[in-house]
Amino acid sequence: MQNLKEEPQLANLRAPRPEDGASVHGLVANCPPLDGNSMYCNLLQCTHFSDTCVAAELDGELVGFVSGYIPPATPNVFFCWQMAVGEKARGQGLAKRMLREILQREHCAQVSFLETTITESNEASWAVFQSLAKDLNCELSSSVMFDRERHFNGEHATEMLVRLGPFVPRQKN
To answer: Residue range 150-159: average pLDDT?
Structure first.
């Protein structure tokens, strides 16, 4: 009998709930090199920013989370604050699925640019955003946003501002 490889089960994507705050906190802590936030910050992400964040659940466990927001001064930009994918769900394209889920929401109907910051050494994040730019058929550019010495007092790697766009905003139904 042939041994068939079982297809990976896809995580369910949904808006986060306040009860997810502690799980988000734990997930981020288990996803180096991500910077941890306070649990209170994660609770705010799961409440005040739930329209622009997404939780990924697999078998009742939080395995992915993307947090972001639309800056008040630039309503056509979605800023991705943080992206975490737990070990159980890696290698399945979950990070890009979560980003696309957010961009398809009514709340992002006017968004035509995506921005985030990435350290130069974070190859996994660069790969996700390069792939997403290709899927969205748009340009990807980068420049220094927060410099190691000037902004982080030498205690954190330089964060590059990565900008994707323009792309076609979500179409209203």
So the answer is: 96
